[in-house]
Each structure stands twice: as structure tokens, then as C-alpha cells.
Amino acid sequence: MSFNDDEPIIPPPNSGPRPTPIVPGRVQLVSKNNNMAPLEENTQKVLLELTGGDSTSDRSGLDLVAVLDVSGSMQGEKIEKMKTAMKFVVKKLSSIDRLSIVTFLDTASRICPLRQVTEASQPQLLGLIDALRPGGNTNISDGLKTGLKVLADRKLSSGRVVGVMLMSDGQQNRGEPAAGVPIGNVPVYTFGFGADYDPTVLNAVARNSMGGTFSVVNDVDKLSMAFSQCLAGLLTVVVQDLTVTVARVDDESTIQKVAAGNYPQTQDADAGSVTVAFGDLYSKEVTYSYKAGGKLFDAPPATVTVRRSGMAFPEDDPPVDVQTEEARLRTATMIRQARTMADGKKLGDARDKLAEAQNALEDVVAQSDPLLDALRTELQELLKLTKSQDVYEKQGRPYAMSSETSHDRQRFAARGDIESNRLFATPRMDKYLEQAKKFDEDPAAPLPSADQDEKEEVAANPLAPLAGPITFYIQAAIQALQAIEKLINNGAKAM
Q1: How far apart, in whole angstroms, are the C-alpha atoms of residue 465 and residue 25?
Q2: b or e along 57-92 (b: 16 or more beta carbons within 10 Å of the residue's beta carbon)?
Q3: Angle, in degrees to the nearest 10, between helices 370-384 and 347-361
Q4: Distance CA 209, CA 17 (A)
Q5: What are the DSSP E strand ranges found in 265-375?
Q6: pLDDT in tens, 371-413
Q7: Which listed residue, of 169, 273, 404, 480, carries a Cα 20 to 30 Å from 443's Cα?
């Protein structure tokens, strides 16, 4: 079956033409590194921080597919909370957005094609949500494949932002393993709902996608809040198909390591370069080479320079920002190590590793940094969730997996208590969090659309930066020379 019946985007009456933004300078690159180095061969650490340009009220339309578990375990309160969460999503979307709903139980069903979300279609979409009834088994893989096919078969795809939101409350007991479904260049955001789902499967699906995250929603009352955070990101995508290429300068430097989470990296041994692909990035996130409105923008190359001197330099003394990023990367690695230990029933070793990570944070220079506070909160919560093997199996493992995808993507992911740790949350996410809380209390109350949110933000601060920062840690060796040395030539490759 072909799903090429996606609806066209028809401007609402009296809306006027929607301008296409021209954004050749929409993302910018800043490097943070030591500007002096000794004459002899040495290693330098560089933090590349990519940020966006001025704010704009124009954005690309979103094609969103919601893949929803309606198996028998969703009976009662769960299905009602899911309906409320989906109604929030529908009411936030605007006429430039399209929504398709896919449900799965024994098999998957596409409830509706990609429909333009207008004043006329909103009640119809809400009616489809109200009509959902749970029953049957759990075939996550069929739901995922159907959702991906909806996007793959579109007639209208150019310049569109895409996303899949997949939620499940249970163990897959039908179909092929969902972790083995090829996803391609689509972000899939997964949500583990309740206490009986398999976090390993949902985490794998998110990690296999381009930029997706795995969120933990233990409290059934907070599904709307979790959905709101994902939606806030998708509705503020700044640019698409972004890449960063970090290259050596011949006979002057060698790239030893590029740390960019688990975004795909490709190496060119002859050129001595590393290219990282990011897919789509949100407002308040960043990168350097991108597409907008279907057009490719090549960013000009930038060069990181280091002046050589015969002065004595303290060993391994990078700038504070670099040290803080190193602390984040180290903490994320130790969380992963602790999870592996706990998975192997070595709970005491896992707790020791988390305590070691806590102690390491106290050695970082910038003690008052909000990022360090978020890391401390994360480690404290994980220590609570590893107090027994049973607690770890039910709550600790999902929390750790969600933490890992969040750090690897530098993107917010709910970890149970959505409000206590806001690591990587954007201002729009903060706004939608409050809106979702109020919507849960009164779903009939008026709710501003995404376009109204944009207009308010631009009116409040028209020159607010769109994006930043997302950071990339680079380690490079520079040779023993006595001149101003080029360390890294950072250029954008065409896609």
C-alpha cells in the first residue's frame, strides 16, 4: 500500500503569502581554546560552539507522525492520558503543519494520512483521537515501519521538517524486533509510558534514528508534558541537514579526536578530516552548514589559531568552558559505565562509579555553572535508583538510557521527573511545559498555536539568538614550530 495521499498545504483565507526566510548567516561558529602554546609539540583541546543568528517568525512546516500504542495494556487511565497528550499536540500545530496518526496493537493501522492542521481539520483530528480504543497485543515494529512509510511516500516533502513520536507502555510480543527496523534520516522520539515497557527496545529505536531521544514517563499524568517538550523542539527547527567538517592543516596539526556524541562521523584519512552529520537542529541548538527552505547554504571556513611562545605553560590547562565540557563528557561516560555494571548485577560497583563521577565534578573550576548543577542532579537521582537491583531494573536502567541519549544528542529527554532536570531544554520547551501542565488541568481552555508563540517571542525580543550552544570537543596535536600556527581549519562540505 502506498501512502502518497498526504494533503497539500493550502494557505488559510486572508493569510497572505508566507515569506520564505533568507538565512545565509543563520548559524555561527565560535571556538574556545588556549590562544598560546609552547614551542615544542603539544596537544591542544578546542571547544567548537555553534550558535544561530537573529530570531525570525518564519519556520518550515512540520510533518509529524504520532505512532501510538493502543494494545490491551493501555486500558483505563493510560488511554485517557494519551488522548489528552495528543489533543495538546493537535492544538499546538498550525496550518503549515501536517499530522498523521498511526496506532499499533497486533498490527499497525494508519488512522489518517498526513493532514494539514487547520481550523476545519482540528475537530476531525480530535474526533479520531477520542475514538481510539485499546485491545490486543503489542507490535512496535509494525507501528514504526508504518510511521516511517507515511513519511517516505509523501508527495510534498521539499523543505519540510519531519519527526516521529512513538510511545508504548508494554513489551513487544508481536512482529520482528523493533530495534532492527532501518530508520534512515528521520528523528524518532520514543516514550516509555508507565512501568511495564522495555526500555532497551525504545532506547535502541531512538539511537538508530537521526537525532531522536528516548524519554521516560513513569507518571501517567505527565505524558502531555513529555510530548510538549518533543513538540517544542520540532516546531523550532532552525535548519536542516547540517554538517561540520574539522580538518587538519597539513604539516602543522593532526586531529586526534572529535567528540560529538553519537551523531554519525566520517573520516577522510587523506585529508585528515572528520565530518559530523546532525540532521535537523532546534532553535537554541546549533551547527555550521545547513539547508533552509530546501536551499543549501555553505558556511565560510573558519580557522582556529594558536600563537607559539617560549614561555612556560601549565600542563593540561584549557579554558574553563573547555573544562566544563570535558566534565560533561566524562560524566556521561561514567553513567554509561555504571549502567553496564548494574546490568551485570554489579550494583555496588555501579554506585561506586556514580560516586566517583560526583567527586570528579567537584574538581571543575566553574563550580557555579548550571550545567554542573544539572549533572549533579542527574547523578544524585541515579544513586537513588541503584539502591537495589529491583529499583534499578524498573527505574534506574530507563533513567540511565534516557540520560545517555540526551547527552549523546545534546538534546532534552524526559527522565521520569520532567521538571527536576532541564538539561538541554530550550526556552520554547520551558514555555510548552507550563502550557501542558495547564492543559492537563483544563483541556477545554484556549491554547495558543505555535505561530502565536513565535509572534510573541519575536515581539518580546526580535534580536534574540536563534540557536546555541551545542558544543563539540576536539583534541589536536600541533607540531613544534615557532610561528603563529593554524590549528584547525573548519569548513563546511556540500551535501
Answers
A1: 12
A2: eebbbbbbbbbbbbbebbeeebbebbbbbbbbbbbb
A3: 160
A4: 34
A5: 265-268, 273-282, 289-292, 295-297, 302-309
A6: 899 999 999 999 999 999 999 999 999 999 999 999 998 899 9
A7: 169
